[in-house]
Amino acid sequence: MSPLSPLGIYGFAPTAGAADTGAMFPLQVVTVGAAGASSITFSNIPNTYEHLQVRMIVRDTRAVTLEGFKVQFNSDTAGNYSDHALYGDGSSAAAYANTSATYMSPYAIASANATASVFGVSVIDILDYASTNKYKTIRALTGIDNNGSGAVSLTSGNWRSTSAITSIKISAQVGDLVQYSQFALYGVKGAA
Q: What is the CATH number of the domain that holds 170?
């Protein structure tokens, strides 16, 4: 369905004649330009896949080393989101939870006080995004290596809506996304 080539589960094109079950198809890519951006949005998402995945490398302008970021669906800014996370930095661990929030907040991305040119990475799975009979669930694996220090986090969350997801907005909690931050959206095929 996508005008781009399908990618296999590890980013390689499937071999000729192989079934595309479980294959990932690149849908959209957004790269932040020199002016920075307060947010990025994937819009007009087709409903022809079973799941979605967002892969991102990102840094923002807030004067801290790392922080969470915001994820919202279909321009919904009401208190319809919940999330919880496990977080560790190599010397300590923590957990947090948010309920009735206005966005989901995976943690952590690199911010202005991180080592120069360091970006955080995240992979976000959005399950059953096109379903109209269940709430939507995400799971996110996020991390930053700040030249010897850093953090990793595993976050899950939900959006309490039965609407199919047609747009995804991602933004920094404070400040702007910096140049070269990049976001890629993939459609994931289900079992045949």
A: 2.60.120
Q: Report the domain count for the chain.
A: 1
Q: Which domain holds residue 174?
A: 27-188
For residue 111, pLDDT over 80 is answered with yes
> Is a pLDDT exceeding 50 seen at residue 7?
no
Calculate what percentage of the chain has a pLDDT beyond 70.
88
Q: Tell me, what's the pLDDT at 75?
A: 97
Q: Is residue 16 part of a domain?
A: no
Q: Flag whether 14 is in a domain.
A: no
pTM for the predicted model, two decimal places: 0.86
Question: Degrees (nearest 5) of the Cα angle 192, 55, 147?
Answer: 145
Q: What is the per-residue pLDDT for 22?
A: 57
